[in-house]
């Protein structure tokens, strides 16, 4: 097969991994970048090449830098947070591309925060609290209020429009990072 000078000589395994890890079906991506699904499939198995222009479009879809596709091997499979709303067989499957991107962004921000703590020689806060699904919900509520240093009376006095910021600040005071996710509806995710 002749290689044109404007072809992107990328790793086909990385190309396939990028699509799968972003949560897209082959046909869906082909439509977004305006190429035939067969061509994309052939590029993913190494029987064809994308142009640099097509690769740039894929970079935008997959939210990956151009250089990523030139890696010698695909990265290890990225884990997703445990979803307790799903049955175990379905856990982590069929997550939307937007949700997978938000998970990836949160993991990246966490790594940056860890690096900053280390660079500044600040001890990383430890969070050891836990509860089980079988625990009494009222006792868990008391435990969380104690952990966050919020009395029941304080909780009752918070104005509805200030609730999110109040709880976010209390959680961040424990050293936990809190991020907001965009483009995700509540039926898809409430938090992780």
What features would you describe in this structure?
By secondary structure, the protein is mostly helical. The chain is built from eight helices and two strands, in the order E-H-H-H-E-H-H-H-H-H. Helix 1 crosses helix 3 and helix 2 crosses helix 3. The longest helix has 23 residues. 8% of the residues are buried. The model has no long low-confidence stretch (mean pLDDT 86).
Q: Give me the strand/helix succession.
A: EHHHEHHHHH
Head-to-tail CA distance between termini: 47 Å
Number of strands: 2
Lateral arrangement of strands in the main beta sheet:
1-2
Main sheet overview = 2 strands, antiparallel
CATH homologous superfamily descriptor of the largest domain: lambda repressor-like DNA-binding domains
Give the name of the CATH architecture of the largest domain. Answer: Orthogonal Bundle
Q: Portion of residues in helices? A: 40-55%
Oligomer state equals single chain
CATH class (first level) name of the largest domain: Mainly Alpha
Q: What fraction strand?
A: under 5%
Structural class: mainly alpha
Q: Which SSEs are present, and which pair or pack?
A:
Layout: E1 7-8, H1 12-22, H2 26-33, H3 37-45, E2 50-51, H4 52-62, H5 97-119, H6 137-148, H7 152-157, H8 163-173
Antiparallel strand pairs: 1-2
Helix pairs in contact: 1-3, 2-3
């Amino acid at each position: 097969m002749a290689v044109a000078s404007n072809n992107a000589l990328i790793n086909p395994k990385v190309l396939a991994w990028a699509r799968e890890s972003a949560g897209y079906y082959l046909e869906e991506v082909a439509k977004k970048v305006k190429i035939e699904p067969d061509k994309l499939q052939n590029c993913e198995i190494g029987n064809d090449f994308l142009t640099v222009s097509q690769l740039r479009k894929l970079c935008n879809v997959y939210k990956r830098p151009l250089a990523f596709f030139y890696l010698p091997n695909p990265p290890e499979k990225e884990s997703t947070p445990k979803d307790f709303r799903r049955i175990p067989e379905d856990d982590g499957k069929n997550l939307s591309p937007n949700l997978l991107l938000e998970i990836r962004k949160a993991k990246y921000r966490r790594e940056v925060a860890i690096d900053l703590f280390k660079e500044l020689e600040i001890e990383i806060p430890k969070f050891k609290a836990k509860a089980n699904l079988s625990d009494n919900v009222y006792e868990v509520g008391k435990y969380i209020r104690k952990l966050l240093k919020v009395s029941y009376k304080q909780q009752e006095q918070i104005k509805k429009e200030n609730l999110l910021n109040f709880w976010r600040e209390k959680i961040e005071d424990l050293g936990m990072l809190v991020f907001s996710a965009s483009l995700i509806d509540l039926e898809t995710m409430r938090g992780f």
